[in-house]
Amino acid sequence: MNKFRRITVLFLVISISLMVFTSTAFSADSKTTDGEYLQSIIDLIKQKYNGNITDDELLQGALKGMFNTLDQYSQYYTPEEFEEFYGSLEGAVEGVGISIEKIDNNLIVNKVFANSPAKKAGVLSGDRIVQVNGESVQGKELNEVVSKIKGMSGTKVKLGIMRQGTKNLITLEMYRAQVDLPSVHYELRGNIGYIHIDSFSQNSSKGVSEALKYFDGKKVTRIVLDLRNNPGGYLDQAIAIARYFVPKGIITTLDYKDTLLEDKIYYSDLEKVKYSLAVLVNENTASAAEILTGAIKDTKAGVVIGSKTFGKAKVQESIPILTDEAFSKFNEGSEKKSANAYDFKSYMTDLSGWAKMTIGLYYTPNGNCIDLKGIEPEIKIKEPTPFGIHVNLLEPMSVTVKPSLGTQYYDVLSAECVLKLLNYNIGTPDYILDANSVEAIKKFQKSNKLSSSGILDFTTQKLLNKKIADIKLKQDKVYSRAISELMK
After folding, report:
1. Which segments does the entry list as coiled coil (predicted)?
2. Which residue, 49, 89, 123, 221, has most beta carbons within 10 Å?
3. What's the pLDDT tens digit per position in 256-265?
């Protein structure tokens, strides 16, 4: 499927102000009042601005301004930006393995992908990027910063970040690589099937299907579906996954502002519910993940456990915007003009950019709109954070590198966290393998009858990974409650 496909199958008409701007603002013979006004602004810039600027750059700036003004979820992308940020939903990307968004003029990491260079270097969701290779990126455009971070596999990049709770700049060094981005992870835990969905990417429903086939082969019918920290993604993938669990009836209803569009109702045809299901959520469960959660809760297809979800019921459409020249060419002789490239066949090479725009709201099967409200779990449990460590976010070590003294590495953080939870004197986990960490590793090795070298070797990493799994089972109260509910 084309990687620039729409999130939903719709044909939208861009607002008349945008059509006027793209078709007349850069035309010297414009007869419309709006066109004359906008053209006068352009002429003023060209006359007074002491620098070089092209009509296309002015158009790109105006488009960004219009769409970025709508709401926090609407945004305009150049074709390069769109490929970069929506490429992460397709299953693979070359770079360091992070997703970035611009919030209040800050460049915030909203996701760090598993086994990526960024993950191993210690980048965390919520980090604010302020430097790339020692150069400040404050006030820079998103695409410019992304271009600085991107590069050929094997090349090095340094990110300077600020992190909540710290005052000093953190510099993390990593090597770019091809990053696979699987969104679905599953495993058999005794007689329980565990599925964790990071986000709803293009292949998420396929991943869930594979998981369920595996569990079916093991005759496992009790499922834990972990949607904690899932920010959403493709709507069609959330719907497809819902159809594995939600009984026959409504999954969700989309209410569009555009009167030319009929509200869309998505249904499940599942005649008989096959699985006993527990869904885990938290305050970072959002958007498409809430569509799935709301459908399961309202239809009583499973029990929802955890803390109240984020509360995003706004639905976005990704719309390709024609260039000024393509707009004139494709709309010649037409009474009803459109800048939406989806209204034409040959649009892929004639794009000014892409607009991600809020087009409607979704409602749960019971008719609830959870925007800014979130979904209240049926069983409310706060996630445990002993020593400030989020137990459910603990990651196993990669068992690919043996960090040396002074190394700053994600595996070191995992080791320090688990040692801290095992009551070793580790101080504050900080990614750095310092003398304090080495001493704690020695004590752990000695107590487990390993060579007490203080080296984080593969044998030690594997044993620590087993401890992480044990801790998750024992200290993740949300997961533990899910098991209790499923075993009733």
Report:
1. none
2. 123
3. 988 888 999 9
